[in-house]
Amino acid sequence: MNLEHLGNLTDEIGLFEHCLGSEPRPEHGYCVDDVARGLIVLMRANERSEEGRRLADTYLAFLAESQMPDGRVVNRRDTGGVWHGVPATADHWGRALWAWGTVVRESGDAARAAEAFERFRI
What we know:
Largest sheet: 3 strands, antiparallel
Number of strands: 5
Low-confidence stretches: none
Helix content: 40-55%
Structural class: mainly alpha
Number of helices: 5
């Protein structure tokens, strides 16, 4: 799998929500929906390269930080690290659950799967 485009749209926080061609648009920040989708793609593609692992770890950390202690998830984050919106169980929450479940099933990494399972259980 060629991860160049996905890597270009990802920084140390997460996967940017929007881009113009191959250029990320950081002013739009990040959202759980897109980060979850990125993680699902990596897991389903069985991407085990160093870059794939780096991206997966970034996306897992982002999703973990989006989750509140009661399990609800905040969807949007800006590049300064500030979360925006109300924690909820809307579509973005479902995509986070889908991503965590996919990691449990597909990751092949016991520690990563255990972390994802714990998030799924919350």
